[in-house]
Write a structure and sequence with these properties.
about 575 residues, alpha+beta, Immunoglobulin-like, disordered N terminus, about 25% helix, eight-stranded mixed β-sheet
């Protein structure tokens, strides 16, 4: 595609806007702003380590801690580390603290703000290799720093920042986010938790894996039945989602979904959940077990379901500890031909990765809008050939690499934006966000015990030695091509990949590259499918009949016909194909 001259002028204009501070003119009038932050008396007697965050909002539609994000509507926040912080002493956040989207407090315009502070608390982990790392432990919330039980935060206050003045404000951490109430089992949904020996050995303390288990209709009435297993991969699930045994609440006030531009989406969701229940208990629906796994780590809301240097043997723990534990407890068949994986986005990558890394333990992966499965298209960066993750290579222009678009190609955020946001939340890969978990999963461990950076978090300069480590260990397309003589016979007919051709995060680009290889495979031909949704955004999953607002609610049923066909075609001689078909 060629650009005409007006297009180039427009791009340069956008670059200038992106590179300039949006509040620079107003901020020039501010001499200095600082915040002193302390603990309320009696809040804690222990010394605290962690990431201290200051949030400033121009409105009070919600607490400031819930108003910072990577969208155009984000409010401001700033961060710094604290170590051995004790009651009776103040910590200062001033122009030295890193900020987003403003670089630091020196750029803060005069005006009215609502201010709030929060401490994302860390703890020390003594790893089995002898290294000690300080990380934010998950507390059952899935690494959500602004909702993490045990984190300290302040009551928001209204402040006035003047022009050409030196303003200082004081915030008091006086509240603690409460613990999460344990879930209650129901007739169909059970919640399990098990200690992983493999992960406990790695982390030097007890580590537990969890799962929400959806049991088939008639489970108690058919003790002779043993069931196939469907593993739904994805972000940290608070409970088993999308299942409701009662009709939609007639008194539910309809809401509006900004993402899908649909009024009453909450009512649609409840109806879909109830429809799933009705399908689940119907006479002609096959009986099987569905699980949603909980495997948060100190780096993210889940581990990415593979073994990694900085997080430990999560792939082995899930495949060889958790899944057999569930199958034994709930009468699963317990053999690879009767296990299937599926999911979207993070879950899509995980579903494909466990199928590739454990090819005989699963009999099919349904991979929707996966995170990059070929790192030549790591979003909008080729980590092997490009020099910088934030800026396109150019002698004279500074053209940012986009990080998010809509279905028409309108850009909403750059890769730098996402990484700057993470840098405020935490250094050393401790933001709990997307780019940091990719490094925590794919990178080697550094001498300090933390993941080695693929690129410099501030400049975007790529470390190609780290990229090579990624290629050999986690680039799924590369691994397929490298190992096809041995992997191919074990994966024949098992890979099903779906993505929208206008995926918001450009994830379709890696799928194109992977499809090029798969279609060339021989001895054997891969025998699966790759499908694209026309102008479909993240996270299209193969449904050409319905919009994503509907299809995303039908993951647990949409692949069942293909799974049944796969079982009938591939089950070994003498396999149990009847006890679960009542």
């Amino acid at each position: 595609m060629k650009f005409n001259v007006p297009s180039v002028i427009f791009i340069i204009f956008v670059c200038v806007l992106l590179c300039a501070s949006p509040a620079q003119t107003a901020a020039d009038d501010v001499q200095s702003v600082s915040f002193s932050i302390s603990f309320a008396k009696g809040l804690t007697e222990d010394a605290q380590d962690g990431r201290l965050l200051l949030m400033l909002a121009t409105h009070n539609d919600d607490e400031p801690r819930f108003l910072v994000n990577t969208s155009a509507s984000t409010q401001l926040f700033f961060g710094r580390n604290v170590e051995d912080w004790r009651g009776g002493s103040d910590v200062i956040i001033d122009g030295d603290a890193i900020g987003y989207p403003l670089a630091d407090l020196s750029e803060l315009p005069a005006g009215t703000y609502y201010a709030q502070a929060l401490l994302n608390r860390y703890k020390d982990f003594q790893l089995a290799n002898g290294v000690t790392v300080s990380l934010p432990p998950d507390r059952g919330e899935g690494q959500r720093w602004n909702r993490k039980p045990g984190n300290f935060y302040s009551t928001p206050i209204k402040i006035e920042v003047g022009a050409a003045t030196s303003d200082s404000f004081h915030l008091v951490l006086d509240q603690v986010i409460p613990d999460i109430e344990p879930l209650q089992d129901t007739q169909y949904i059970k919640h399990i938790r098990m200690r992983s020996d493999l992960l406990s050995d790695f982390w030097g303390e007890d580590v537990y894996l969890g799962a929400h288990v959806l049991l088939p209709e008639g489970f108690d009435e058919h003790p002779e039945a043993r069931y196939p297993l469907m593993v739904f991969h994805g972000h940290f699930p608070n409970d088993f989602g999308g299942f409701r045994t009662e009709p939609p609440d007639p008194d539910l006030e309809p809401d509006y979904s900004t993402r899908f531009d649909i009024a009453g989406y909450n009512i649609i969701q409840q109806q879909e959940e109830y429809d799933f229940y009705q399908t689940w208990i119907s006479d002609d629906f096959p009986r099987f077990i569905v699980i949603e796994i909980q495997h948060p780590t100190p780096y993210y809301d889940d581990s990415y379901a593979v073994n990694s240097a900085s997080q430990g043997p999560y792939g082995d723990a899930l495949t060889y500890e958790l899944i057999p534990f569930i199958e034994d407890r709930f009468r699963g068949i317990g053999e690879g031909w009767a296990r299937f994986t599926y999911g979207g986005s993070t879950g899509g990558w995980e579903a494909m990765a466990v199928q590739v890394f454990y090819p005989e333990e699963y009999n099919g992966a349904f991979v929707a809008c996966p995170d990059p499965i070929d790192f030549r298209a790591y979003l909008t960066t080729n980590i092997y050939a490009d020099n910088n993750a934030y800026w396109y290579d150019s002698q004279f222009m500074k053209l940012p690499r986009p990080g998010h678009r809509d279905y028409l190609g309108n850009i909403h955020a750059s890769q730098y934006d996402y990484n700057r946001f993470e840098a405020v939340l935490g250094d050393k890969g401790r933001s709990g966000q997307q780019y940091d978990i990719w490094e925590a999963t794919y990178s080697p461990m550094g001498d300090d015990g933390y993941p080695v950076r693929l690129w410099d978090k501030e400049t975007g300069k790529i470390d190609h030695s780290v990229a090579e480590y990624w290629r050999e260990n986690y680039d799924l397309r590369h691994i397929l091509e490298r190992d096809w003589p041995t992997l191919g016979p074990k994966l024949e007919g098992k890979l099903h990949i779906y993505v929208g051709d206008m995926d918001n995060y450009y994830l379709n680009n890696a799928v194109y590259l992977t499809e090029e290889f798969l279609e060339k495979t021989t001895n054997p031909y891969y025998g699966g499918e790759v499908d694209y949704g026309d102008r479909a955004e993240h996270c299209w999953n193969g449904d050409h009949e319905n919009g994503n607002h509907i299809s995303r609610l039908r993951y647990n049923t949409m692949y069942v016909p293909k799974i049944m066909q796969r079982i009938e075609a591939s089950a070994p001689e003498g396999a149990d194909l009847t006890s679960w078909r009542y």
